[in-house]
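pasting for ref
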Amino acid sequence: MNPETIVIKKLYPLIVFIFIGTGCMFQKPDYVEMITATELNRIMQNEDIFLVDVHTPEQRHIKGTDLFIPFNEIEKYQDSLPQDKNTAIYLYCESGPMGNAAARSLYELGYHNLINLEGGAKAWQKAGLDFE
């Protein structure tokens, strides 16, 4: 084996680790908290929350949804959002990524209390919870 092949073989696990670690950061941004369907349901039973469906195309909404905003049009709907930027905004889409994208847009607008439903509406349905 030549020396270059040995170096590549030794570096391969490190390269794989870096790609996996970087991918995980994109899945769970630090500006949004992830919440399970059962946790969200429990909170909804005890509190009045601001729940936003951000999935496109529009889907069946979780019972209690306050607003539908396409994940890529957050800025167009600023007037419909809470004026207090510390208000908790709970987000969901079909499976999670559009919720993260919406959270990023909201964060850039100054909102800092952002919660995304892990697994989205699919997780909600799998948990046997209600839709409108």
